[in-house]
Here is the input.
Amino acid sequence: MHLYREKSSWQIEGFDLEEEKRRIIPVDNLIDVTPYAEKKRISKKKIIELLSKQEKAINLVLELGPKAIAQYKKYHPLDMSISYTNPYQSTAILKTFIPTHHSDKLTEIINWLLFLGGDIKIREVPKEVVEGLQGRLAVYRE
Here is the structure.
């Protein structure tokens, strides 16, 4: 589906046809690729349909301005993507699911939201993320 370079390694975001789920596969040391048997292949439309059924409930919605989009392009988690909301690609919206019960993931998201800067508008966010952001910002108040 996508080829990425993240944290100094090449990775492919693909769809596992046997398990019918999205997977991230490191491909730095890839030597050989064999195409899947033509009879067993499924169309991209079918893959997108299967993925949309598996999508978790969205609990983070952000509107990004030009500066936040520039930061997003520098670094973003692989499972997140933006949709541009105007033809000049100067504003965008991000919708995703944040697993709030994983403290490592939660910390990573809080760090990333701070990295995006002030050019974001938060439309929807889990209370755990808000509490984490408030805790991080409290350090600077005193």
Notes: The chain has a mean pLDDT of 85.
